[in-house]
Write a structure and sequence with these properties.
Length: about 190
């Protein structure tokens, strides 16, 4: 019975800690946002494949012209090919839960219905700022010492909007940003 309890504890601990890289990123990010703002997390997870696509960089056909944004220089081409093989085989989870972000004050809303649009319209009409986030699950590399994930951020009152892949490395127990690749074309 004790072994079963230990296994359950380890599974619970690993499920909570696998999200730590995103939580560390958010804690840093929220220090720079407007203090009186509200935060909404889109319940549906972004795809890790999309995070990889942004990280790699790509050309997009837009108005009969190719718009190109460069990807990360953190990895070599050979490393990117190896990462791509792993990402293609990965399995994304479906939805975020409040328990995934225990210490962060989020309102979690689905992107599949009109409730989020109604909520945003109310905030805009009251001239109240709301930050809306969506994330992919982190994709771990190098024995969980390196991770990347996609973040989409929008704001109701300012132009602090972006889609980017964030690459972070764990050093001395803390996750630090080593590269960010923005994409304004997605």
């Amino acid at each position: 019975m004790k072994n079963i309890m230990n296994i359950c504890f380890l599974l619970l601990f690993s499920a909570c800690s696998s999200n730590r890289v995103v939580v560390d990123y958010l804690e840093k990010e929220m220090r720079y946002n407007q203090k009186s703002s509200e935060y909404i997390l889109i319940k549906e997870k972004e795809k890790q494949k999309k995070a990889f696509t942004v990280m790699r960089g790509m050309g997009i056909l837009k108005d009969d012209k190719t718009s190109v944004f460069s990807g990360t220089k953190f990895f070599t081409n050979n490393e990117m090919k190896q990462i791509e093989k792993q990402v293609v085989r990965s399995n994304d989870g479906d939805e975020w839960k409040k328990s995934d972000f225990k210490n962060i004050s989020f309102i979690i809303k689905s992107n599949k219905n009109d409730s989020i649009l109604q909520h945003i319209k109310e905030k805009i009409s009251k001239k109240e700022n709301t930050y809306i986030y969506s994330f992919s699950e982190p994709f771990f590399l190098e024995n969980k010492k390196l991770a990347f994930f996609l973040i989409t951020k929008s704001s109701t009152l300012n132009s602090d909007n972006y889609i980017k892949s964030v690459i972070m490395r764990k050093e001395q127990g803390k996750w630090i940003i080593v590269d960010e690749v923005y994409n304004t074309d997605l």
